[in-house]
Amino acid sequence: MKIIVPIKQVPETNNVKMDPVTGTMIREGIENIVNPLDLYAIETAIRLKEKYGGKIIVISMGPEKAIEAIKEAIAMGCDDGILLSDKKFAGSDTFATSYVVAKAIKELGDFDLVICGERATDGDTGQVGPGIASFLDLPLSTFTSEIVSIENGKIRVKRLVEEGYEEIEMTLPAVLTVVKEISDPRLPTLRGKLRAKKMGIPVWDTQKIGAEEQKIGLKGSPTRVVKIFTPKVTREGEKIIVKDEKTLYQAVDRIMDYLIKKELI
Amino acid sequence: MYNKLTPEIVEELIGIVGSNNVIYGNPDALEPYSHDEVAEKHYAHMPEAVVKPSSAEEIAQIMKLANKYKIPVTPRGAGSGLSGGAVPVYGGIVLSVEKMNKILEIDKENLVVVVEPGVVTNEINNAVKEYGLFYAGYPMSVETCYIGGNVSENAGGGRAVKYGVTGRYVIGLEVVTPTGDIVHLGGKVMKDVTGYDLIHLMVGSEGTLGIFTKIYLKLMPLPQAKVDLLVLFEDMDTAIKIVPKIMTFGRIIPTSIEFMDELSFKASCRYLNEKIPFEEAGAMLLIELDGNSKAELEEQYEVIGNLCMENGAIEVYVADNATTSERIWRIRRNIAEAWKQFSPHQSLEDVVVPISEIPTFIKRVREISEKYDIPIPCYGHAGDGNIHATPIKKPELSMEEWHKKLKTLLTELYMIVKELGGTISGEHGIGSKRKDYLPMVLEPQHIEMMRAIKKALDPNLILNPGKII
Amino acid sequence: MGEVWTLAEFRHGKLNPISFELLNRGKSLAQKLDTSLASIIIGYDIKKEDIDELIERGADKVYVVDDKRLENFIVETYAKVILKLLDEYNPDIFIAAATTTGRTLMPYIAVKKQTGLTADCTVLDIEEETGNLLQTRPAIGGNILATIKTLNTRPQMATVRPHSTKPALPDRNRVGEVIYKQFSDDVFSSKTKYIRFIKNESQQVNIQDAKIIVAGGRGLGKAENFKLIDELAELLGGAVGVSRDVVDRGWKTYPHQIGLSGKTVSPALYIAVGISGAIQHIAGMQTSENIIAINKDPDAQIFKIANLGIVGDLNEILPLLIERIKDYKKKEANLNV
């Protein structure tokens, strides 16, 4: 089984502090990590490989330093990596990104599955996975929470939807985007790190993947960001500190008042 | 022996620090100053008043006043201590340094930072970071504790293997003596053998010999990169045997080598729902390295990791980014929290034994644990033999039984420590909590010398009485 | 000028009320552009009342594709049907809800149409000079808002965050046009087979549609303590949400998770209990209408976005609050007798 896992390197934002004056993110000292949701895709791929054998290829579109993310995935247990990097890719929106990744996947030849994280924690769109499926004209399962079975060239999966789960069956090759429920990512091991270190990661550019220049980068992006601004989070309302029984009762009274006045109860 | 505070004396205190900086006659406001982080309530004691001076001069006047009326004074930092050191066991005045919280000078030429005692330790690093410098002291409570308390307790913590403990970085002190004089020890010089080393008499004196009003700390270049290894072993013997090997064969001194016994990491991993194969392990080490570049660290962790694998490790996990590093460290950090879900009553100990004796110590602890039917998870700093053996009260045990059992249990525990050539506190201090156990590990002459020093500096025994001796 | 289209979600024989929120959005866009507003509804056995209700709530036209083969959501089939409609009618704007369906279908369609799509918008507007759709969405964990335009390609597509606006109100006298469409067999072919739907037994899981969410964090301490959260949620007729930590620790399942790696919600009331308010959590709930936070740490980030903050021990506060709500409800019930 040949599995392709597209991943993204993102800024680590869990421990981000906000500048109290400007209300913007303090970017100093923020490192780059594998998009946390992609770790579930990587883990899913590794488990499938452990069960069915085969090969996992990680691909990532980004600058040179995104190789770190690819190597982290290899250290976890993926086999190969390819970096999609070209100045011409810069400024790609989700359409152009899906196109570049889809072209690279085509270049890789036959495969059985493409597994993506449900979305990236920086852009937070969740559009590239479905976009890749659309470009490749492949069946797609988004929000995949479980792989039920793979047999006779078909994969059966469960998708996490609003009111429960949907079970669907797709012919292979297919594209999955996965949610956290599907697996628990392993940690990279020393052996994995040593293997990743030795490995050369090929860099593919526009020419290598045979992409049309009018479909990539800023030029190939149908959307454009026209304005970026900081939301006003000046909600900070009243605060009651519970110190003793008296203030405890006052606090609960206040919650009740609030609920009643706002007709929430 | 001591006198009670009177409204008249309080008026005098107000005269020194102003009415805003005196708490008196308000039990609600005084209560937070009656305890530190020691969980057991019976170690707490209410102060009669709290004063919050802003300068050495004010503190000197307070001490003179206290001597005049024979009122005990207990200095206090952030109150994050674990030995009852800041608790006013004889009542009297709690002298809080919370108002003295300024970083006075960052001397880039001499690599020295001068701070007041009430600065939160973490803030020192936030401030010197932009100059590419760092202060190496790193108690586990770094986000809340004050530097003054760190110096008083000679705090250790997570980075001690490579960087040593607080005292190593204290090169100068301004101290108010128990009798109310202001004295200056050391300064910005890196070497100083002029006379007795009073700085290091003061460091770790737990607030019994003087009150620090200015602290000169040595700074180091800020390491640019960090890697953590989580190593799973079948048993504690194999795990601990690797520690000297890292230092000798590896020629590397890690920033920290933390160990966790089965009781510790299994509770924490289950609590955290961690899915690494921890059930197969009998011991874990968490090894942290820091250095100037990822490349340099890569070489080092490979050496250490390979050493571990060659010497019986089940698996070595490598964390070189925030996601994985957090996942590894939270296992260590959540041990206490995980056990707290089982029972909130714990006695957090910090005994020290020679590194090679850790496995024996843990075996002996298991025996005590069985004998008393009290779980005692052990974890801590393998790199320096400092062990947090933590007896935990079973929920079904009554408080009365618990205290009775704990007392004999601790005596037995400390006996083992002594037998193995160790001592009863590596970083939390003696304070009031371990005072009765001191004669177990110190020779009578040693205690006598300490008494003589105390008497010479504090003839009225005004400053932080009821502690250590 | 092409029409403004909204996707009416129809599933398991029911029209998703989110469709009315889209009509509210669409109405103001269509008015600004002086064009008509249309809903497309595809599925099987679509009821007349549902179609009428779309009109009553603002649609000038409804395009209906009713076919047994559209009974269940298959992205390839749905996309092909919608692409047929788009090709025939060339709407200027096409919006859908950012539900699991919308977030699957829209990117699949956008690629085929070679046009732009903006995810999870919270504000939609029309640029006066150009008539372009201005699509505003939170990014980088809600720390910034970005306004995005689709330059030259059409339709301009966006998914809209559920509950970021109110549903359009019905006007029983409104009339509109209903256009039934049928397509040839090849449109319905796909490589995907729908097997079954497994309803989530826990009623408290569908947090995205809940009006009230009671959310618990690490401060709860352990799984058993969630019975307080469960009870409070049930009393208020709300759903239970949690922070990432709680799911990581196995105290609650992933469908409850709110935040960057979970769900984004905008309920009328969000009660955050024992949640410190890491950016990754706040990103998923900061557009809630009312936020009440209970946390023992006075410096917790969550207080910065709370309308009402209580600093204290949740184990003291929640039982008392639950008791008070029960009393209140009893009194109300008596008054109504």
From TrEMBL, chain A:
Q: Residues in domain Electron transfer flavoprotein alpha/beta-subunit N-terminal?
A: 22-213
Q: Name one Pfam family in it.
A: ETF
Q: This protein's superkingdom?
A: Bacteria
What InterPro entries does the entry give? ET-Flavoprotein_bsu_CS, ETF_a/b_N, ETF_b, ETF_beta_N, Rossmann-like_a/b/a_fold
GO terms for molecular function, please?
Answer: electron transfer activity
Its needed co-factors are: AMP
Q: Which PANTHER family match?
A: ELECTRON TRANSFER FLAVOPROTEIN BETA-SUBUNIT, PROTEIN FIXA
| Recorded family membership | Belongs to the ETF beta-subunit/FixA family.
Q: What is this protein called?
A: Electron transfer flavoprotein small subunit
Q: Which organism is it from?
A: Thermoanaerobacter thermohydrosulfuricus WC1
TrEMBL record, chain B:
Q: Which Pfam families match?
A: FAD-oxidase_C, FAD_binding_4
UniProt xrefs under InterPro entries: FAD-bd_oxidored_4_C, FAD-bd_PCMH, FAD-bd_PCMH-like_sf, FAD-bd_PCMH_sub1, FAD-bd_PCMH_sub2, FAD-linked_Oxase-like_C, FAD-linked_OxidoTrans_Type4, Oxid_FAD_bind_N
User: Kind of enzyme, top EC level?
Assistant: oxidoreductase
Q: Where does the record place the FAD-binding PCMH-type domain?
A: 43-222
Q: Which UniProt keywords apply?
A: FAD, Flavoprotein, Oxidoreductase
Look up keyword Flavoprotein and say if it applies.
yes
Q: Which SUPFAM superfamilies match?
A: FAD-binding/transporter-associated domain-like (SSF56176), FAD-linked oxidases, C-terminal domain (SSF55103)
Q: Name one GO molecular function term.
A: (S)-2-hydroxy-acid oxidase activity
EC number assigned by the record: 1.1.3.15
Names of required cofactors: FAD
What protein name is recorded for this chain? FAD/FMN-containing dehydrogenase
From TrEMBL, chain C:
Q: Keyword Hydrolase, does the record have it? A: no
UniProt-listed GO biological process terms: fatty acid beta-oxidation using acyl-CoA dehydrogenase
> Cofactor note, please?
Binds 1 FAD per dimer.
Write out the GO MF terms: electron transfer activity; flavin adenine dinucleotide binding
Which Gene3D superfamilies has this protein been placed in?
HUPs, TPP-binding domain
Fetch the InterPro entries from UniProt: DHS-like_NAD/FAD-binding_dom, ETF_a/b_N, ETF_a/FixB, ETF_alpha_N, ETF_asu_C, ETF_asu_C_CS, Rossmann-like_a/b/a_fold
Q: Where does FAD bind?
A: 218, 243-244, 257-261, 274-281, 295
Q: Which SMART domains match?
A: ETF (SM00893)
Cofactor annotation: FAD
Q: Where is the Electron transfer flavoprotein alpha/beta-subunit N-terminal domain?
A: 4-192
Taxonomy, superkingdom: Bacteria
Protein keywords = Electron transport, FAD, Flavoprotein, Transport
SUPFAM superfamilies, alphabetized? Adenine nucleotide alpha hydrolases-like, DHS-like NAD/FAD-binding domain
Coiled coil ranges (UniProt) are none
Keyword Membrane listed = no
Which PANTHER family does the record cross-reference, listed alphabetically? ELECTRON TRANSFER FLAVOPROTEIN ALPHA, ELECTRON TRANSFER FLAVOPROTEIN SUBUNIT ALPHA, MITOCHONDRIAL
| Protein family per UniProt | Belongs to the ETF alpha-subunit/FixB family.
The name this protein carries in UniProt is Electron transfer flavoprotein, alpha subunit
The source organism is Thermoanaerobacter thermohydrosulfuricus WC1
